[in-house]
Amino acid sequence: AQKVTQAQTEISVVEKEDVTLDCVYETRDTTYYLFWYKQPPSGELVFLIRRNSFDEQNEISGRYSWNFQKSTSSFNFTITASQVVDSAVYFCALSSYTGANSKLTFGKGITLSVRP
Amino acid sequence: EPEVTQTPSHQVTQMGQEVILRCVPISNHLYFYWYRQILGQKVEFLVSFYNNEISEKSEIFDDQFSVERPDGSNFTLKIRSTKLEDSAMYFCASSEGAGPAMGETQYFGPGTRLLVL
């Protein structure tokens, strides 16, 4: 069975600090995909990134970066120089390549508060 | 940029009433999904839909729930007889290709917040 663990529940930082959100996953599949979504206070789910299990290259997009380590089954997300607008709940999610399985399994989410 | 839309944004209903939540997926997408999020909890999969039929459903998606694509643009979730525990945010999502199992990204709508009294 798929499982995503986001052990941190709430993180509070001061603006301009860097912050890392942890995600650990479990799957028996050899091919799978990992995602991060952002849920701002308005409630919608905003797609941030998708990474497949064969691509362990880290990715950077502006202030955001992701570190995928298959050896530790982790897919961590770092926000550099955080801003107040980064305040949101961040969800890590997992899907697997089975053909019949077309669902996302989400972690419980991490509430990030960035104070001015 | 194309987006998934959902109506209504909020709905309040009495226990036992039927509700229909509506979604308009992104126009060239072929796979559709419903998820729910009970307040303060994680997002949970309900059902996936492709080619006018359910491709997978969770244990939450019991006989009280049904989905339909009544025309070429809408995708609906019906709860036949609502219970208090159905109170949640319901998200519709769509993906272009074969769903996340093939690595396609699911794009989510803004959600419908359902409150059952």
Keyword list:
heterodimer, A: 116 residues, mainly beta, 6-stranded mixed β-sheet, 4-stranded antiparallel β-sheet, 12 strands, 0% helix, globular, B: 117 residues, 7-stranded mixed β-sheet, 11 strands
Task: Note the main sheet of chain B.
Answer: 7 strands, mixed
Low-confidence stretches of chain A: none
Please state the structural category of chain B.
Answer: mainly beta
- What share of residues of chain B is helical? under 10%
Q: How are the SSEs ordered, and which strands pair?
A:
The complex is a heterodimer of chains A (116) and B (117).
Chain A: E1 3-5, E2 10-14, E3 19-21, E4 24-26, E5 32-39, E6 46-52, E7 59-61, E8 64-69, E9 74-79, E10 88-96, E11 105-106, E12 110-115
Parallel strand pairs in A: 2-12
Antiparallel strand pairs in A: 1-4, 3-9, 5-6, 5-10, 7-8, 8-9, 10-11, 10-12
Chain B: E1 5-7, E2 10-13, E3 19-24, E4 31-37, E5 44-50, E6 53-57, E7 65-68, E8 75-79, E9 88-95, E10 107-108, E11 112-116
Parallel strand pairs in B: 2-11
Antiparallel strand pairs in B: 1-3, 3-8, 4-5, 4-9, 5-6, 7-8, 9-10, 9-11
Describe the structure.
The complex is a heterodimer of chains A (116) and B (117). By secondary structure, chain A is mostly beta strands. Chain A is built from no helices and 12 strands. In chain B, strands 2, 4, 5, 6, 9, 10 and 11 form a 7-stranded mixed β-sheet that branches. Chain B has a 4-stranded antiparallel β-sheet with strand order 1-3-8-7, with no helix packed on it. The chains are: A mainly beta (116), B mainly beta (117). The A-B interface holds A 33, 35, 37, 42-47, 50, 52, 91, 93, 95-109 and B 31, 33, 35, 41-45, 48, 50, 55-56, 58, 89, 91, 93, 98-103, 105-111, 113.
